[in-house]
Amino acid sequence: MSFKEKIKNIFGNKGDNKMKEVVEFLQANPVQFLATVGRDGKAKCRPFMFCLEKEGKLWFCTNNTKDVYKDMQANPEIEVSISDPTYAWIRLNGKAVFENNTAVKEACMLNPIVKGQYNEASNPIFEVFYLENAKAVIADFSGNPPKEYNL
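Now predict its structure.
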């Protein structure tokens, strides 16, 4: 069973159609780019990976020894950008809210990449965060207006 199927079995797919569309796009394009304002005041952009949606929140994970974690602590307003092979893309922004959520951490461990980095949900450097007041813009080069969602 894939990571995506395991998460769906644990948490279901309770979101509305807007959330479902965003989650499916994130899952279909597993490497995203997360942008922050660094503590030096300069833009920073890093490859990142979406973990899961739970109770209407988009969850991600990181390591509390990394600069990205420290940057988000100093300025939690972030943006994630992803494109697919058909030249469609999402820009997703919101406030990164860190929470010690054991259920989310356990679910993240179902991803072999996360499991390989942190071994277990209780690892003291392992952090999870969701996007508060998330906004998504889905667009492409078709000439059609972008879809804009408040999640």
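Helices lie at 3-11, 17-28, 67-74, 102-108, 112-118.
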